[in-house]
Amino acid sequence: MSDEEFRAAMSRLAAGVVLVTAQEPPLAEGGPRGEDVGMTATAFMSVSLDPPLVLVSLREGSRMDDLLDEQPLWGVSLLSEAQRHVAGRFAMKGRISDRLLFADLPYARGELCGAPLMGGALATLECRTESRVPAGDHTLVIGRVLRAQVPPVEGGPLTYFRGRYRQLGN
Q1: Does a structural domain hold residue 100?
Q2: Which of 72, 95, 113, 139 is 20 to 30 A (C-alpha) from 131?
């Protein structure tokens, strides 16, 4: 089977879209806070209710993979259909800095994880890494959900199907 055949088959699986965020540790003890980092993900799922666990699949060696290897606290924003621009912004590969990507977006800092959590998201989660599992060219990061919030947001989820962001029903 070729990579193209596998990619084409998997593009037929609709997935919800999330923004995974974390904050880099300060460069020096007591120094200024590290940079905020974000990554769009569709390979995200609930794993367990007791304890509450989620899983995100990260490309091995990506900035987020490297960051979550040293930073155990991270956030997840379940994006709404109105947040397609957020998903597209954080899906760009090869960025040196994410500082400007957060500049004009509404977010609140997670009380427990310190990571940006998107305003307008359908739900937000604050997580602590429980384990990391190598899986081919990805790392599966399993996180314990420390806090979940469901703000009163209208609309449905942002989904990804056949290589495009979509809304339910289209």
Answers
A1: yes
A2: 95
In degrees and rounded to multiples of 5, residue 54 shows phi and psi of -130, 165
Total count of domains within the chain: 1
Is 21 within a domain? yes
Planar angle of CA 103, 106, 108, nearest 5 degrees: 105
Can you give the pTM of this predicted structure?
A: 0.92
Q: Is the four-CA dihedral 167, 85, 59, 2 of positive or negative sign?
A: positive
Per-residue pLDDT of the chain (170 residues; tens, 9 = 90+): 888 898 888 888 889 999 999 999 876 676 677 889 999 999 999 999 999 999 999 999 999 999 999 999 999 999 999 999 999 999 977 666 787 889 899 999 999 999 999 999 999 999 999 999 999 999 999 999 999 999 998 889 999 999 888 887 65
Contacts 24+ apart (CB under 8 A), 98-105: 98/35, 98/36, 98/37, 98/38, 99/35, 99/36, 101/38, 102/36, 102/38
CATH number assigned to the domain comprising residue 141: 2.30.110.10
